[in-house]
Amino acid sequence: MIYKQITCMYIIMLHAWFSKKQIETMKLNTLVHKDGPYKIYVTKDGKEVRASMVSDTMEHGCGFDDIKYLGKVDRYVRCEN
To answer: What is the DSSP string of 13-77?
Structure first.
């Protein structure tokens, strides 16, 4: 008997965003953001992006009025101060 394994793989596209106001707010809470408020992600072409947040849709839900779209990112790398 031959069994064929079928797996489903869901690829979630992540969208990176940056808000200076959001970073300043996160810097006030050092317990939660002890590794740093900046989230470093990598794009498919290997470029590092320094974001304040990511979302899985173009609707980021962020209330900061200075938020800017940075583009699509592939994977998380690290946090920075």
So the answer is: PEEEEE-HHHHHHHHT-TTTTTT-SEEEEE-TTS-EEEESEEESSS------TT-EEEEEE-EEE
Is the pLDDT assigned to residue 61 strictly greater than 90? Answer: no
Q: Please compute Rg for the chain using Cα positions.
A: 16
pLDDT at 32 over 90: no
| CA distances (Å), origin 64, targets 21, 34, 47, 48 | 7, 22, 25, 23
Q: Looking at residues 51-58, what average pLDDT do you find? A: 93
